[in-house]
Write a structure and sequence with these properties.
Radius of gyration of chain B: 19 Å
Number of domains of chain A: 2
Shape of chain B: globular
Distance between the termini of chain A: 24 Å
CATH topology of the largest domain in chain A: 2-enoyl-CoA Hydratase, Chain A, domain 1
Largest interface: A-B, 73 and 62 residues
Number of helices of chain A: 11
Largest sheet of chain B: 8 strands, mixed
Shape of chain A: globular
Number of strands of chain A: 10
Order of helices and strands of chain A: HEEHHEEHEEHEHEHEHHEHH
Strand content of chain B: 15-25%
CATH superfamily of chain B: 2-enoyl-CoA Hydratase, Chain A, domain 1
Largest sheet of chain A: 7 strands, mixed
Radius of gyration of chain A: 19 Å
CATH class of chain B: Alpha Beta
Oligomer: heterodimer
């Protein structure tokens, strides 16, 4: 079941969890069953990339792609504090991922899809060479096999330690999305808390359908930068989903509990068009059993996939 | 010519440095400015229009920082809003329709960080420009004449050829921003400027820039005409090379042009092979 992965994350003996927003004490099992959203105030706690995948895909359908891609240190970034290589290593140990994105295929309500999921826990979900490459490849794979592409973002933007290479990933991913669009393969963008900077200003804004998870902070500039630059206090709803919906930037605000069914409904409609893949997921070979989901409780142990 | 990166940042930001409107009269003849995005407004931080380069009609678009205090405020120091990027895109798409090459000039601290910009979809405007510029079926050239500030620069900077002025910079984040985020101290900006490798030779080395335009001794601010002439010569040379490579006018091979541009951006990035030197057995017994 979807919830198993959440339950497995629970520390032994931790029966209650406190909501970070309303401070209510929530029974841990209820919190997990609710996909880490508060049943009282609807606050959405952040999900890891693996939890996100488990929350969306049909059981045992996840198959990771391009998992061999690893970060380098192209600038030989001279840091005054911690070195880039050590930061990467620390993030890898902490998340059990090799980079800030996971990509692969799976099924949602038996519909074949491809997912790219950013991991905020890995250096703030920042985009550098590997994240850009994974997004670009995912778009290219989807242009080839016509699986709709679902991109789930949680990112502070472009990663400073890879400098101009990071900035150029915005152009690279945007170009790949443009090509996917030209191939008439549908793309979906799910903006989660937080999505800002170079990720919002590239692939995350270029999907056919864009939805925001309830309560998420989404924008180009961070709220602190805006307040410091303009010397004005931002209204409380600024850069929140209601604000984006009002200003015409997103199609819908979705509660995490409803995300899978909302995506499935949209996927079915796109599948009803003349350019949809002629091969339903049920006729494609069954993907091999996913190790990724089975090993989620290894997060923090530094276990690597592949 | 080993000048400190921070010194280059100072030169790129020199208030006496020529801005877009100073160069336009030197590089082009018969400039006609066009205004407005046809949706919301006209952003003075972006100037665009049609002009003639050696008798050939081109579209030219760029950031304009402003010279007087009032002008600077009007133009927000070259920090564009969504309507500025949408004006740029409108002019580019019009140029594509008529087969005019597109020449952009980059000189911005970054895209405007404001509530108004967020309300009108700053991130959306930038992303749409990136996706559209890759696909434009006319030759495109971009010149960083001063500060190439992050996404706000890239939003008009996707091109077949990117040229850097000798004292220009191009970076993912301002040195101050990098220093305050990484080291909690904006005063360490000089170190950040060095670490991020934001000067012209580094950009060429990274395969992001295709050439460096020399500046007069002491920098472009000492001789606008000389600096402008160097830009004009570089543009003419690069455009002629693109003409030779892809054909021109009715003979332009737009598919090959767009494919080459796409490939240029597709290749940028450095990815290590598995097993990573950072994970597993490769690194000091970790």
């Amino acid at each position: 079941m979807i919830q198993n992965i959440f339950h497995r994350h629970r520390q032994a003996g931790a029966l209650w969890v406190q909501c970070a927003k309303c401070h209510e004490l929530i029974y841990q099992r209820e919190f997990d069953d609710n996909l880490k959203t508060c049943p009282r105030c609807n606050h959405h706690a952040r999900l890891s990339a693996r939890e996100r995948i488990a929350s969306l895909l049909d059981e045992d359908t996840w198959q990771e792609e391009d998992e061999e891609l690893r970060p380098a240190d192209p600038l030989g970034f001279i840091s005054l504090g911690e070195q880039y290589a050590d930061k990467l290593n620390e993030a890898q140990q902490k998340t059990g991922l090799s980079e800030a994105a996971l990509s692969g295929t799976g099924e949602i309500d038996s519909l074949a899809v491809r997912l790219v999921v950013l991991e905020f826990g890995f250096m703030g979900g920042s985009m550098a060479s590997v994240v850009g490459e994974k997004v670009a490849r995912a778009a290219e794979h989807s242009a080839g096999d016509r699986r709709p592409l679902i991109m789930i973002s949680a990112s502070g933007g472009a990663r400073m330690q890879e400098g101009i290479y990071s900035l150029m990933q915005m152009a690279k991913t945007s170009a790949a999305l443009a090509k996917l669009g030209a191939a008439r393969v549908p793309s979906f963008s799910v903006l989660t808390d937080p999505t800002t900077g170079g990720v919002t200003a590239s692939f995350a804004s270029l999907a056919d359908v864009i939805v925001a998870e309830a309560g998420a902070l989404i924008g180009f500039a961070g709220p602190r930068v805006i307040e410091q630059t303009t010397k004005q206090k931002l209204p409380p709803d600024a850069q929140r989903p209601e604000f984006l919906l009002k200003h015409g930037m997103i199609d819908a605000i979705v509660h995490r509990r409803e995300l899978k069914s909302a995506l499935a409904k949209a996927l079915r409609l796109y599948a009803g068009g003349p350019f949809a893949s002629t091969t339903p997921a049920s006729l494609t070979p069954a993907p091999k059993r996913s190790k990724a989901i089975a090993s989620t409780n290894g997060a923090g142990s530094g276990a690597q996939q592949g | 010519m080993s000048v400190d990166a921070w010194e280059i940042v100072q030169r790129a930001r020199d208030p006496n440095r020529p801005y877009l409107l100073d160069y336009i009269g030197i590089v082009f003849s018969d400039f006609v400015e066009l205004h407005g995005d046809r949706q919301f407004g006209d952003d003075a931080a972006i100037v665009g229009g049609l002009a003639s380069l050696d008798g050939r009609t081109v579209a030219t678009i760029g950031h304009q920082k402003g010279r007087t205090t009032n002008d600077r405020l009007q133009r927000r120091f070259g920090m564009a809003r969504p309507e500025g990027y949408r004006k740029a895109l409108r002019i580019m798409q019009m140029a594509e329709k008529f087969g005019f090459p597109i020449i952009t000039f980059i000189d911005t601290p970054g895209a405007d960080p404001s509530l108004e910009a967020e309300q009108r979809g700053q991130a959306w405007a930038i992303a749409e420009n990136l996706a559209a510029m890759v696909m434009l079926a006319v030759p495109t050239l971009a010149v960083v004449i001063g500060e190439g500030g992050s996404g706000g620069a890239l939003a008009i900077g996707v091109a077949d050829r990117l040229l850097m002025m000798e004292n220009a910079t191009y970076s993912v984040v301002s040195p101050e921003g990098c220093a305050s985020i990484l080291w909690n101290d904006a005063a360490l900006a000089p170190q950040a400027a060095m670490a991020m490798k934001i000067t012209a030779p580094h950009l060429v080395e990274a395969g992001v820039a295709d050439g460096i335009i020399p500046e007069p001794e002491g920098g472009a601010q000492t001789d606008y005409a000389l600096a402008g002439t160097a830009i004009r010569d570089a543009l003419a040379t690069n455009l002629a090379e693109l003409d030779l490579q892809f054909g021109m006018g009715a003979d332009l091979d737009t598919n090959a042009l767009v494919a080459a541009r796409f490939e240029k951006y597709r290749r940028i990035g450095v990815v290590a092979a598995t097993p990573s030197p950072l994970v597993g057995e490769g690194r000091g017994g970790r």
